[in-house]
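We append the chain.
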Amino acid sequence: MASFSIALSGLTAANADLDVTANNVANANTVGFKSSITQFADVYAAGATNLNTTVTGEGVRVASTAQQFTQGNITTTASNLDLAISGNGFFTLKDANGYVYSRNGQFQEDANGNVVSATGQALQVYPPLASGGFNTGTLQDLNLQTTLSAPSATTSGTVALNLPANSTAPAVAPFDPTNPQTYNQSTSTTVYDSLGNAYPATFYFAQTATPNQWNVYLTVNGTPVGTAQTLSFSSTGAVTPPTAGTLSFNGFTPPGGANPMNMSFDFGTTTQYGSQFGVNSLTQNGYSTGQLSTVSIDPTGIVSAVYTNGRSTQLGQVALANFPNPQGLKQLGDTNWSQTYASGNVVQGAAGSAGFGALQAGALESSNVDLTNELVNMITAQRAFQANAEVITTANQLSQTVINMAH
């Protein structure tokens, strides 16, 4: 009887539906997992063309198991190497067998400094260019084993402060940095030599006998640098030419083999008003050697190494991938997919560009499995299985009746 084979096809289809549902439920907590649904198609005998003949179907078959690439919920984590894609795209990973693609952003640093997935595939990035930007024509492993951030010697700076207009020339001369009676005011900062060594630098200000005119002295590490520089002010308290507020202090030779230090400081916004002495800003452009402090990743996928000296270096830009037909990707397990003919050729790009979502560091995309829907699907598949089993039982009873009538 055809009913046996028809009901058997229904049992097979219902069982396949249960398998897909069970796999979805099992991966409800798998980061980056994408659920699937079972799609069915009815079966008819080929060649049944007689319009006067009632054509009975041959049952059902599983047409496909379609992956659902809907967005999963994004949750924050404590690791800045965890990444979540909000929108379209896949992380590009590489191992000995080639490239694979994933939505699982659980990354960590291996023994060689490479950023890898939990299963050891290396996260791919666009390498930085010396002229700025990134080489989007090639991919490389993201590696965090960077060298120390090189120091930079102080060559310039800015000093913005107010010198009291009612000051008088010091009673004691000549200038002596160890004797406060030889100057009116002082303020300090830190400067750096070419080897990254830090030294205290102190500016001393002494009112001259000429109104609106001050002598500025500089010591580095207690050693006087150059000669006194003159700073003049107008009757409105602003710095006047010819120096326009830029004073040069040359000739400090640091100990330890660093290059001699020649420094210029811009006093252009310094004022001479009747108020008290006050420092508004005191900056310089040098910095010491820096060690890697942390790694930051912005929403466009730019990975930067941040150093203890406040500097940062771009290590690459996370390369995202997309496909004309993501449902055609081949599931490899470990929340990885590979390109197939059905998926179309991979399209590479950066987060935030056309066709690609944004990246969020310190976050992960949860599985997109909806447990409520899966439980409903489970009940539906179970009922379909039971109904088809009942058809087989009924068909068997009919067969037994026919056999008994024949006897």
Observations:
- The radius of gyration is 38 Å.
